[in-house]
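Researcher: Quick test of sequence recovery. Tokens follow.
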């Protein structure tokens, strides 16, 4: 499974990394630190889904 981040959509709400800190992290100004396509570590799939679903801008897609 992987996540695809559309950084241009991120508004820095921080919901992804608040809900799933093991999967998502922030940069120095509060935007999602991941860029583009990223593999999700085994066992973190549920958190990846929760974090992606928490984004009000729909900037994160989960690809199975």
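Model:
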């Amino acid at each position: 499974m992987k996540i695809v981040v559309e950084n241009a959509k991120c508004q820095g709400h921080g919901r992804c990394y608040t809900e799933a800190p093991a999967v998502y992290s922030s940069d120095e100004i509060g935007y999602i630190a991941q860029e583009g396509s990223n593999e999700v570590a085994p066992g973190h799939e549920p958190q990846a889904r929760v974090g992606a679903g928490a984004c009000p801008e729909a900037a994160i897609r989960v690809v199975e």
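The chain has a mean pLDDT of 97.
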